[in-house]
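Subject: for your reference before the review

Hello V.,

The reviewers asked for a structural picture of the protein, and I figured it would be easier to keep everything in one thread rather than splitting it across files. Below is the amino acid sequence we used in the manuscript, unchanged from the supplementary table.
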Amino acid sequence: MSTRTVQEKHRTEIPAHVPADRVFDVDMYALDGIEDGFYEAWKRIQSDDIPDIIYTPLTGGHWIATRGDVIDEVYRNPDRFSSEVIFLPKEAGQKYAMVPTRMDPPEHTPYREILDRSLNHKQIQDAEAAVRQAAIELIEGFAADGKCDFAVQFASIYPVRVFLALCDLPMSDAAMLGELATNMTRPPGDTPSEQAKALDEANQGFFKYVEPIIEARRGSDRTDLISVMVNSKINGKPMDEDKVLGLISLLLLGGLDTVVNFLSFLMIYLAQHPDKVKELSEGPEKLLRGTEEMFRRFPVVSDARMIAHDLTYRGVEMKKGDMILLPTALHGLDEKSNENPWEFDPGRRKIKHSTFGQGPHRCAGMHLARLEVMIMLEEWFKRIPEFRLSPDAKPRYFPGIIAAVEGVPLIWDKK
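And here is what came back from the structure prediction:
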């Protein structure tokens, strides 16, 4: 990994407490080598000759955890690594106003309990029939064609349709909400201030959208996710207006981008490895175990934490307010955490990853994500057991807080 100067990128001054040998040019929104793949690009900064914590003057200037055990530890310790700001660049992250992801315990705890009650395992299992029906309808819509643009015709629709149904929102709102989500997780702009402006506008767009919905459902006995959360109480009292706006906006953001992009990365791999498809098709138990391995191998989140107070961590002096990026890809793909990490092994045991985060902010939607993936693959393999990438496929990768990929044309033999 080179520490070459990248003149065309916005750079910040390197703080005096950052050692020169820790400085590497890494732009999380424009990774070197991204044309070769998202995971390949991140893996460039994980090797024996690169420290487990480095610093980049790009994207506003911040630390980066390059090893799985560091990523895991930072996530689990909010007393040292705060969630007060979780998006980069920091100037943009300070505009992020959704809860409870911006909170640390104990303030965070009652809001997280609301999310956990609403998205617990039993509640999600009750939605299985609707999730399965959504998968079947979409797959059968193109199965006879012998081809599809997977990212467009399936991945961008399936989890969104499921989630909007759980929230009792119209599918016609999906495109607008998807654009807001993109502008938050991959904010456009050439400077931190430009990215901050884009993220703030998207955040306010979510607030503007959910405000009348919250008002209409407050006090109702409806059972959709939004109504249940809106009518929940914090310490026996109704939620403050700004908190309920942040909570419902977070609910939508979390359901509209992550699984959408995960599915496309997964299917690119499976289309190139028919032996893995055959193995996953052997039965429900194999698919169940394989699902956790999928999340290890194909994480898409790279969020951050803010240093809560001056400290020395793993030999590095960090100052209060410094930011540290946690690319979850570098946990699952770390050979020190998982043997032969590039290999997708449905039978792997002792799987280690931070795809859903760790600690108090571990993803509340993980049960829904697992269910969606398992059902999608079950129904896909029934109808399209053999498929491959089109010979002219040229996937385009987009790094960011949540990575994305476009251009996933799949083909298969017509029956």
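For the response letter, the relevant points are probably these. The chain has one domain: 20-388+398-411. Confidence is low (pLDDT under 50) at residues 1-7.

Happy to draft the paragraph if you're swamped.

O.
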